[in-house]
Write a structure and sequence with these properties.
Order of helices and strands: EHEEEHEHEEHEEHEEHEHEEHHHE
Helix content: 25-40%
CATH architecture of the largest domain: 3-Layer(aba) Sandwich
Pfam family, one: Epimerase
Number of helices: 10
Number of domains: 2
Distance between the termini: 50 Å
Structural class: alpha/beta
Low-confidence stretches: none
Radius of gyration: 20 Å
Strand order of the largest sheet: 3-2-1-4-5-6-10
CATH topology of the largest domain: Rossmann fold
Protein name: NAD-dependent epimerase/dehydratase family protein
CATH class of the largest domain: Alpha Beta
Bound molecules: NADP nicotinamide-adenine-dinucleotide phosphate
CATH superfamily of the largest domain: NAD(P)-binding Rossmann-like Domain
Number of strands: 15
Organism: Saccharopolyspora rosea
């Protein structure tokens, strides 16, 4: 097949393009080339979506995969330029499209946020995004896709994406931190649900779905586990002997200015009570649709390789600095997991 990836230079788009090349397709990626390079075997057509898609004018693709992070305008422009001739269209939305962040067991049929049609475009250089606006733009983008190419559209809503190329410092924070060993501060929320999908599994699934002409809307998620199972499992894979997971009470962490999930001075993957549903969607539909789920060890080692490439001592956009962690360990540690 002739496949276009709108993106292709960052984590998911790159993995999608690589999966498509591996599966024998001819692959074109359209991006600026600022976030990285495209995989070997794929062609980069330099495009700045702020200026439209003229470099792709007149081209026809059997399948298009759009990973536009947060821009309704980019999504609409792509549909206008390429939708009529495209054989199949995948739009990468997000689990943040859902209105209810608390209830576990939701499915693709659960209610979504109101569409947001007037938000400014997000670019890779932006890091501060209001999650509700992000989710609302995804909903508006999904609707635009269904309106334009609904009979050929596959809308996927990934949960937390992990594995190689992850620059979000969430799963990667834990892989790197546990690899360093010692006393590792964790939030004492052992039973918190957590769910992720390895980018390589997601990419294979997206291309496999395009090959089959799958349409409709599905979550793109793996099985639900607990925070304790995930972090102790990760520790078994990457941490040196003698590593201790030292838990601090969530309330005390919040009082000490530690944020859940992401951002500066945070404990990534830890969720506030208001958001426990986000990482506990029902994976049955994704799995029934053939979502592969690789062993945690492969995701962990790949995340660690990316961490090393990025620099283990770099300034991160999420997590605790060593100094912050030491101070919190000295004051808040209350039990070892
Ligand atoms: N990470 C998660 O846990 C998570 C969870 C749920 C959903 N998602 C969704 O999954 C997708 C992730 O995609 P991703 O990993 O490939 O990366 P991304 O960091 O979201 O970047 C997307 C692509 O957009 C391109 N881009 C940015 N500005 C551009 C411009 N002005 N013109 C043309 N292209 C531009 C980037 O390439 P250049 O910079 O090289 O131009 C990059 O290839 C997004 O849709 C995200 O919303 C992510």
């Amino acid at each position: 097949m002739e496949i276009l990836v709108l993106g292709g230079t960052a984590q998911l788009g790159h993995a999608v393009a690589a999966a498509a090349v591996r599966r024998g397709h001819r692959v074109t990626c359209a991006a600026r080339g600022v976030s990285g390079s495209v995989p070997a075997g794929a062609e980069l057509v330099p495009v700045d979506r702020r200026d439209g898609l003229d470099p792709l004018a007149g081209r026809r693709f059997d399948a298009v995969v759009d990973v536009a992070t947060m821009s309704l305008r980019w999504v609409r422009d792509a549909l206008a330029a390429l939708g009529a001739q495209a054989g199949h269209w995948t739009f990468v939305s997000s689990i943040n499209a859902y209105a209810d962040t608390m209830t576990p067991g939701q499915t693709a049929a659960s209610p979504v946020l109101d569409p947001v049609t007037d938000a400014p475009d997000f670019t890779s250089e932006d890091r501060q995004v209001d999650v509700e606006t992000y989710g609302g733009v995804k909903v508006a983008s999904e609707n635009a896709v269904r309106e334009a190419v609904g009979d050929r559209a596959f809308v996927v809503r990934p949960g937390l994406i992990t594995g190689p190329g992850d620059r979000m410092d969430r799963f990667g924070y834990w892989a790197a931190r546990l690899w360093r060993g010692g006393r590792v501060l964790v939030p004492d929320a052992p039973d918190q649900p957590i769910q992720h999908i390895d980018v390589l599994d997601l990419a294979e699934w997206i291309i496999g779905s395009a090959e089959q002409g799958r349409t409709g809307t599905l979550d793109a998620i793996g099985p639900v586990t607990t925070l304790r199972a995930l972090l102790t499992g990760l520790a078994e894979i990457v941490a040196p002997e003698g590593t201790e997971l030292v838990a601090a009470p969530p309330r005390a962490l919040l009082d000490a200015g530690v944020s859940p999930w992401s951002g500066p001075k945070s404990l990534p993957l830890w969720l506030p009570d208001t958001h426990l549903g986000l990482t506990a969607h029902d994976p049955a539909e994704s799995l029934a649709a053939g979502m592969p789920v690789r062993p945690l060890a492969e995701t962990a080692h790949a995340a660690l390789r990316t961490e090393r490439e990025l620099g283990l001592d770099r300034e991160r956009i999420a997590g605790l600095t060593p100094a912050e962690e030491s101070e919190l360990l000295a004051t808040l540690a209350h039990r070892v997991w």
